[in-house]
Amino acid sequence: MKGFTHDQTPLPLPAVTSRSAIPAPAPRAIPAPIRWWRELAELIKFRLTLLVLLTTLVGYCIGSAHPIDGLGALHAVLGTALVAAAAAILNEVIERRQDAQMIRTQNRPIAAGRVDGSHAAAAAVACALAGVSYLALFANVLAGLVAAATLATYVCLYTPLKLISPWNTWVGAVSGALPPVIGYAGARNVLDGTALFLFAILFLWQMPHFFAIAWLYRNDYEKAGFRMLVVVDATGRKLTSQTVFFTALLFLASLWPMVAGTAALPYTIGAAILGLLFLWSAVRFHNKPNRTTARGLFFSSIAYLPLLLGLLVLFWR
Question: Where do transmembrane segments lie in this chain (predicted)?
Fold first, then answer.
């Protein structure tokens, strides 16, 4: 067997280190401006606010004469944006303790302690006053009053009612259905049957949309003490039955322009197809309520609304 002679020394082997001993690369620092914008987007519930502004713009387009007054539409959207941001912030201020207990919301800026609640409330009140005043001055007083009613319903009724009664979903749907009415009032300065139609579409759509979310996060809601229908109804049959009921009503309401003669035939065909697909998702959820069917209903609701509103804008007479 060969061995090492005096003039033959072994070469040193590289040191073996464990993977855990290798220092992890330092996380890349996020620039301060990006962090600020992210916090702001979370604070004002950016995606929800964006949906509010979309429906406001649709309401303005339906209510305005052709061609659409671009500057007037901008005024309606900007004013509503300030009010919507105020509502979102005040909701997070009031619910900061509940938000901190839920996985879905525990990282919100106020709940996580990154933003002071009193400072956020002061900023929200300023936004609310600015938004209502802006609408009254640059759109009309009616639009400002509807925006004020939306804010009051959301903050003063819906938010505290979540801890008291499952009827909170109905009240929340009222505040969520008013933004297109703000836009319509801003364009037409009147509330009529068309404004009621827009309100009905948004109100009815929110019920299956909210019920799907509630099912997916029912453990979170129960932990936080929210009296949602999915919490008080142990079997879930009331919730799934109401889901089908409101989706069916939405299907019928969406066909009202056909009866009134206010939308062209392509709208009616598109609305019927969209409504039947949405109703199928609701029935599927009712027959087999679980996370898969609830998620399917949620994504169906997300697809349904912008498509229906797009058809309305394109084919409204």
Answer: 48-68, 74-94, 115-135, 141-160, 167-187, 193-218, 239-259, 265-285, 297-316
